[in-house]
């Protein structure tokens, strides 16, 4: 007989809502690790995946894993504030302990942050505070930086400005051409996936405090 699914509120297992806009390989890394380790050992499970658009691999990955999904498109709302309110409501409906932006390509607004600030984690493909924004990989390459990487941080009211939890370094090689953004991004994502999985698990299992710009994980 198949064993019963874990209860929706398993004690000690934190609830994650993951937001995606694209391929969802970071989401997949979280799902695979939770599947391998089990939610109790990992400390968390993904209870829902949200997106700002239909037709993306990230949503397919969630559906394939049997995870509830929701889509909240800006164009379905009269303005950005209304979208933000709807996204906050759709996310809150799944009662997350942590919300993870894993390649979610929208800046959330005040309503969302008033609700989820301090427990909304983002991963960015550059070493913040250098190269914030939507083109972190391309900008580091164009600048001629010798190293770049990824930053897992809490989201605040600025763009990629919130307290840093962890960073991973990736070398920019002499032979990385200005057109080589995709290859560099692929190397960053190898590091990023492992870092995100490690950080989210650590936050879930140990808890944390945010003191000014410092994130303290016991
Ligand atoms: C990641 O590199 C993330 O930092 C950036 O977009 C990428 C998302 O990749 N914002 P995926 O959708 O998880 O594969």
UniProtKB/TrEMBL annotation:
Enzyme Commission identifier(s): 2.1.2.2
Gene3D superfamilies for this protein: Formyl transferase, N-terminal domain
Binding site for N(1)-(5-phospho-beta-D-ribosyl)glycinamide: 24-26
Any one Pfam family match given in the protein's UniProt record, by short name: Formyl_trans_N
Annotated site residue numbers, Raises pKa of active site His: 160
Biological or metabolic pathway of the protein: Purine metabolism; IMP biosynthesis via de novo pathway; N(2)-formyl-N(1)-(5-phospho-D-ribosyl)glycinamide from N(1)-(5-phospho-D-ribosyl)glycinamide (10-formyl THF route): step 1/1
Binding site for (6R)-10-formyltetrahydrofolate: 80, 105-108, 122
Coiled coil ranges: none
Keywords assigned by UniProt, alphabetized: Purine biosynthesis, Transferase
GO MF assignments: phosphoribosylglycinamide formyltransferase activity
Uppermost EC category: transferase
Formyl transferase N-terminal domain mapped to chain residues: 14-200
Active site: 124
Reactions this protein catalyses: N(1)-(5-phospho-beta-D-ribosyl)glycinamide + (6R)-10-formyltetrahydrofolate = N(2)-formyl-N(1)-(5-phospho-beta-D-ribosyl)glycinamide + (6S)-5,6,7,8-tetrahydrofolate + H(+)
Function: Catalyzes the transfer of a formyl group from 10-formyltetrahydrofolate to 5-phospho-ribosyl-glycinamide (GAR), producing 5-phospho-ribosyl-N-formylglycinamide (FGAR) and tetrahydrofolate.
Family according to the record: Belongs to the GART family.
Name assigned to this protein: Phosphoribosylglycinamide formyltransferase
Organism annotation: Streptomyces evansiae
Organism phylogeny: Bacteria, Bacillati, Actinomycetota, Actinomycetes, Kitasatosporales
Gene it is expressed from: purN
């Amino acid at each position: 007989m198949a064993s019963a699914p874990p209860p929706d509120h398993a004690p000690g297992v934190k609830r994650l809502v993951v937001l995606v806009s694209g391929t969802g390989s970071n989401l997949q890394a979280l799902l695979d690790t939770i599947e391998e380790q089990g939610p109790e050992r990992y400390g968390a499970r993904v209870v829902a995946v949200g997106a700002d658009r239909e037709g993306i691999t990230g949503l397919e990955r969630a559906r394939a894993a049997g995870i509830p999904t929701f889509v909240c498109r800006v164009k379905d709302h009269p303005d950005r504030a209304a979208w933000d309110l709807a996204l906050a409501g759709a996310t809150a409906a799944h009662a997350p302990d942590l919300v993870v932006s894993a390649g979610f390509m929208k800046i959330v607004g005040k309503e969302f942050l008033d609700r989820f600030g301090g427990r909304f984690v983002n991963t960015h493909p550059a070493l913040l505070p250098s190269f914030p924004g939507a083109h972190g990989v391309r900008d580091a390459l164009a600048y001629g930086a010798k190293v770049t990487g990824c930053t897992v941080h809490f989201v605040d009211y600025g763009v990629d400005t919130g307290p840093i939890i962890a960073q991973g370094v990736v070398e920019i090689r002499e032979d990385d051409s200005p057109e080589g953004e995709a290859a560099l991004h692929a190397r960053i994502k190898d590091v990023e996936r492992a870092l995100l999985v490690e950080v989210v698990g650590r936050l879930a299992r140990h808890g944390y405090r945010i003191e000014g710009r410092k994130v303290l994980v016991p």
